[in-house]
Amino acid sequence: MLTVRAQVKSPDEFLGYELGSHFTPHYKVAEYFRQTAIAAPKNVKLINYGKTNEGRPLMVAVISSADNMARIDEIQKNNLKLASGAANNINLSSQPVITWLSYNVHGNEANSTETAMRMLYALASGTNQQAASWLKNTVVVIDPCLNPDGRDRYVNYFNSVVGKTPNSDPTAREHIEPWPGGRSNHYYFDLNRDWAWQTQVESQQRLALYNEWMPQVHVDFHEQGYNEPYYFAPAAEPVHQDITPWQKSFQVIVGKNNAKYFDEQGWPYFTKERFDLLYPSYGDTYPLYNGSIGMTYEQGGIRAGLSVVTNDGDTLTLKDRIAHHFTTGMSTIEVASQNHNRLLEEYKKYFQQEITSSPGVYKTFVIKASNLSRQMKLAELLKKNKIEFAYGGEKSGKGYDYDTQKEENFTVSRNDLIVNLQQQRSVLANVLLEPQTLVTDSNTYDITAWALPYVYALKGYASKENFKGKYPDPALAEEAANDIEKPLVWLFTWGAAEDAQLLNGLQKENIKVRQADQPFTVSGKEYPAGTLIVFRTENERSVKDLRAKIVQVARQLNKPVMGITSGFVEKGKDFGSNVYPILKQPKVAIVSGNEVSSLAFGEVWFYLEHDLNLAACIITAKDINNLDINKVNTLILPDGSYSAFIGDGLTSWLNKGGKLILMEDAIESVLDKKGFEIKKKEVMAKKDEKPVPNKLLFKDKDKDDYEFAIPGAIYKVNFDPTHPFAYGLGKTYYTLKTDRKIYEPFAEGWNVGLLNDKSLMAGVVGKKVREELKSGLLIGVQNFGRGTVVYLANDPLFRNFWESGKTLFSNVVFCRY
Fold first, then answer.
1. 542, pLDDT greater than 90
2. Is 548 exposed, middle or buried (0-12, 13-18, 19+ CB in 10 A)?
3. CB 3.0-4.6 Å disulfide test: which of 266, 289, 353, 619 passes with 623?
C-alpha cells in the first residue's frame, strides 16, 4: 500500500513550481486531483458532480483509510440512515465521521484552492502519519473549487498582469481587479448566498451531492480583506435559536484546537466577531440547519496576489495564506477524529429529535393555493432541500396569518400545501418558513427575514396544531382548451413566469399580442385584467402558419390554447375597445461596467436569459446617450451610479418612446435632473425635537447603530391593483427592504407601490428607520414624452429567489407602462 501511495506526486512535483509561488489555473487543479486519485485508488475516490456555466468540471475527492474506502458505499448508506432518524442497528464505533471541506466559493478568494491541493497530498500520500491515523475513523470530502468560473476570471487576470517579480504595493495593478471581479460565478451571483435557494447550476449540482453524503462537519474556507487577521469559529451573534447547544459547543472545541496551533506559530486570529449564524443560505448555516457542525474560516487575503504589504507594514504572501488554511483544515480533521463517537451520537440524536418533535413555536405550515404557479415553484424549492410536504385534507384550524399578522381561522383546501415539522428536515423547514426570525443582535452580516410565504406572495398560516396533508400531489384540473380552427381571438392567462415566456415566444414569431387592461367575461368564463389576446385577422397576413405557431409556443410551455369566436363579451368591454392595447415587443439593453453593482447586473441578466429566454444587449454607461429607438426600446439600469451619464441623448430616446427602468440606487442618478419627477422623501423633524446625544460607547464603534439598522426586512407594498404592474399580484406585494431610501408620491404619474405605517412584516428595523419608512413611494411610473420611466426602489430579483418579484419584473418589462 505504501508503495502505491508513494507514487502520489506533491503539488510542487506535479505543477513544476512551488505551491504558492504562482496561482494555478483550474484545469491544472482538476488534473492534479485526477492524477492523485489514479495514483492512490485505495485511498481516494474522485466524484465528478457536474459542470459550470462555462463548462469547467466540478468535483470532490473522497479520502479515507484503505479499509474505509473498501466499504465506502456502505459507510455512505449508513450515514444517510443516521440522517433519517432510523439508525438503531448501526454500530457507531465502526462508522467514520464525514468531514467535508469546501474551498473557493468566492473566486477571488483564491488561496483556498491552492490549499486544497496541499490538503489532498497530505491525506492521500501516506507521508503524514498523524493524518493516516485520523483517517481510520474519518472520511474527508474535499471540494477544491466551488466556483471555477469566478476563480479563473481572477487567476487569469492576475497571471496576465503580474511581472517577473510580484509587486507588494497594494496600489499596484495586480491588486486591483477590473469589473466585475472574480468573486461571483459566470452570471455574477454570490454562490455563498445560494445554498438554500439553489438558483445557480453550481449550487444545484453541489447540493444534490451534499444530500447524498450529509456530513457531520462542514467547513467553508474564505478570505477577507488582507489587512484582517485569521477568523475561525466560534461564530458571532446573532446565532439562530434552532442551532443546538452541541453545535455551538463543538465550534468552541474546534476553535480552541485551531488556536493552539496558531498560538504556537504566533499567528494572529479572532473569533466570535462579525460572522454570525442566521441567514440560512451560507456554507456554514445551511449545514448547521441540516444537522452538521457548519463553520466558516476566513484568511486575510482578497486581492493580495502573491504578496502584499498590509497596513501594519507586514508582507503577507500566498504561501502564508496557504499555511494558515492548511493548519485549520488539518486541525479540524484532527478534532473530528478525536470526537468521533460524540459527533455521531449527537448527529443521530439530532435527526431522531427532528422526527419526534418540532423546533420553534409552530408545528405545521399551511400555504394556500392562492397562485398555483408560484406555489409549484415553492414546492420545487422544498424538494431541492429534501423538505417533506403534502396537499389538502379535511381540516380547519387556527394559525398565524402572515398577511394580517394575527391568529386567524383557516380551512384547508384540496390544493393547499402543508409542511408538518415532524420530519427529517424539520429545522431547515422551520427556519425557511417561520414568520419572524428571532434576532439577538442587529449587527448581522446579512438579511434578517426570508419567510417563504412572503417571498412567493402566497397566503399562509403558521399553526401550533400538529397535522399533515392527505395527498402527495395537488389535484390540478387541466385547463380546457378550445382549439378552434379560425377563432376571432386566442386568449392566454397572465401572472405566472410561464406566461411571460409564452408572450416572449409569441412576439419572437412576430405575432402581435394585446393585453386586457380590464377584466371581462366571455363564453361564460371570467378573465382578469392582464389576459393576453391574439387577434387572428391582424396577424394572419403577416405571419405564415399563424395557428400552428401559436399552438407550438403554447404546447412548449404546457399552456392551453383558448379560441373565442365572438368579440361580443358578456361583461366588460368588447374586443374592439381601446382597453386591449398591443404590447410592444421589448428590445432590451442592460447597462454593465464599473458604475454598476455586478451582483445587481447579474440578477437582471440571468433572469432575462434563463427565466424569460429573452436575450438582452449588454452595453456600458457611456453608450446610454447613443441608443437607437429602433434597436433598443427598453433600457435597464441596475443598482449603480449613473449621474455623469444622464444626458440629452437619453432624454431624446425617452421622448421617442423608450422605457427606462431604474433600479435601487440608479434612481439617485436622476434626482433633480430635468424631466424626472422623482423626489426623495424628506423626513420632517418633530416640533421642538431636540438632538439626541450619541449613546454609542467607543468600544462599540464598529457596530451598526441599531436605531438606523435595516440589514434586510420584509415590507408589505400596497399596490394600485388596476395598474399593469399589479397583474398576477393584486393589491399586495412583499418586498425585501435593505436600505432607508423612500420617495415622495407623484402629483402626476402613477403611484404603483406605497408603504404605510403598518407595512413592516418581518425582520430587524431600527427605530429611526421605522419612522422614515412609515409612508412613501417604492414603485412608481411617470410619462416622459412618448416614453416612460419606471422607478423600482427595491430589488425585485433579489438573488433570484424572490419569486413574486419575478412576476413584478415581468410586468415592468412587458406591460405597456
1. yes
2. exposed
3. 619
Indicate the residue type of 475.
A
Of 236, 713, 243, give the one whose Cα is nearest residue 435.
Answer: 713
By the 8 A CB rule, do 378 and 803 touch? Answer: yes
Compute φ and ψ for 191, nearest 5 degrees.
-70, -15
Residues 6+ apart with CB under 8 A from 94: none
The reported pLDDT for the residue numbered 442 is 67
Q: Per-residue pLDDT for 252 more than 90?
A: yes
Q: Name the residue among 55, 16, 17, 57 with its Cα closest to residue 37.
A: 57
Indicate the helix (H) or strand (E) that contains 730: none
Place of cell 455623469: 644
The 10 Å Cβ neighbour count of residue 394 is 8
C-alpha cell at 395: 381540516
Tell me if the bond preceding 180 is cis, omega within 30° of 0.
Answer: yes
* Cα 638 to the center of its chain, rounded Å: 17
H helices of 200-277, where? 201-213, 245-265
Would you state the pLDDT for residue 684? 62
- Retrieve residue 133's grid coordinates: 491515523
Continuous segment of H or E residues that includes residue 807: helix 803-814
Q: Please count the other Cβ atoms lying within 10 Å of the Cβ belonging to residue 11.
A: 24
pLDDT 10s digits, 45-61: 999 999 999 999 999 99
The single-letter code of the amino acid at 514 is: R
User: Using CA atoms, how far apart are residues 395 and 749, in angstroms rounded to an integer?
Assistant: 46
693/404 Cα distance (integer angstroms): 37
For 223, the 3-state DSSP assignment is strand
Query: Which H or E run includes 399?
Result: strand 396-401
Answer for the pair 198, 384: CB distance below 8 angstroms, yes or no.
yes
- Would you place residue 694 in the very low, low, confident or very high pLDDT band (cuts 50, 70, 90)? low
**Interval 156-201: pLDDT, tens:** 999 999 999 999 999 999 999 999 999 999 999 999 999 999 999 9
C-alpha cell at 259: 488556536
Supply the DSSP symbol for 435: S
Amino acid at 599: L
AA letter at 725? F
What is the rounded CA–CA span in Å between residue 678 and residue 665? 13
Cα distance from N-terminal residue to C-terminal residue, the chain: 72
Give the C-alpha separation, 586 to 817, whole Å.
12
**Cβ(145)–Cβ(104) below 8 Å:** yes
Burial of 363 (0-12, 13-18, 19+ CB in 10 A): buried
pLDDT value of residue 2:
44
Residues 759, 761, 765, 767, CA torsion sign: positive
Rounded Cα distance, 805 and 793, in Å:
13
Helix (H) or strand (E) holding 73: helix 72-84
Other Cβ atoms less than 10 A from the Cβ of 476: the count is 10
Output the nine-digit C-alpha cell for 306.
502573491
SS3 call for 604: helix
DSSP 627-668: --TTT-SEEEE-SB--GGG--HHHHHHHHTT-EEEEEGGGGG
Residue 203, C-beta contacts closer than 8 angstroms, at least 6 positions apart: 191, 194, 195, 197
Kindly give the pairing relationship between strand 562-564 and strand 489-492: antiparallel
Q: Dihedral sign, CA of 228, 231, 236, 242? A: positive
Handedness of CA 407, 408, 409, 414 (dihedral sign): negative
User: Residue 799 and residue 806: Cα distance in Å, rounded?
Assistant: 11
Q: Which residues, other chains included, contact 245 with Cβ-Cβ below 8 Å and sequence gap of 6+?
A: none
Instruction: Map residue 321 onto helix, strand or coil.
Output: helix
Q: Which residues contact 109 (CB under 8 A, 6 or more apart)?
A: 183, 221, 222, 223, 301, 302
**pLDDT over 50 at 130, yes or no:** yes
pLDDT of residue 4 exceeding 50: no
pTM higher than 0.85: yes
DSSP state at residue 571: B
